[in-house]
Amino acid sequence: MSLVNVGTVAFDAIETPFGKTDKIIGGACTYISLAASYFTKGAKIVSVVGDDFPQDVIDMFSDRDISTEGLQVKQGEKTFFWSGKYHADMNSRDTIDTQLNVLETFDPIIPDAYQDCEYLMLGNLAPQAQLQVIDRLEKRPKLIVLDTMNFWMEVALDDLLTVIKEVDVLTINDEEARLLSGEYSLRKAAKKILTMGPKYLIIKKGEHGALLFNDERVFFAPALPLEEVFDPTGAGDTFAGGFIGYLASSGNISWENMKNAIIMGSALASFTVEKFGIERLRDLTMEEIADRISQFAELTNFTMEYPFQEEEQI
Question: Do residues 262 and 219 make contact, with C-beta atoms less than 8 angstroms apart?
Answer without folding.
Answer: yes
